[in-house]
Amino acid sequence: MAYVALYRAYRPQKFCDVVGQQHIIKTLQNAIKLNKVAHAYLFCGPRGTGKTTLAKIMAKALNCVHGPSIEPCDECEICQGIQKGTVADVVEIDAASNNGADDIRALRDSVKYMPAVGKYKVYIIDEVHMLSNAAFNALLKTLEEPPKHVIFILATTEPYKLPSTILSRCQRFDFQSLAIEDILRRLKIVAEAENIHMTEEAFNQIASSAEGGMRDALSLFDQTISFSIHDEITLEDVLAVSGNVSYKELLKILDSCLEGNGTEALKLVDNVLKEGKEVPRVINDMIIFLRDVLLFKSNAILDDRLEFHAQEFIEFAKKISKTIIYDWLNHLNETNNTMRFSNQKRAYLELAILKMSDIKLNEEANLLERIEQLEHTIHMLSMTKVEAPKPQPIEVSIPTREEIQQIQEEPIVPLVEEVKVETPKPQPITNNNEVQIEEIEEILNSASKSRKTRLQAIWKQIGSEYSGVFIAQILVAGEIVAVNENKLIVVLNDLGFCNRLMRYENYQKIMEIFEAFNAGLTDYICLPKIIWNKIRADYASKYSQDTPVVHLEKIKIGVLKRKEPEQIENKDEQYEQLCELIEKEKIEISED
Question: Which of 75, 97, 20 is nearest to 53 (CA)?
Answer without folding.
Answer: 20
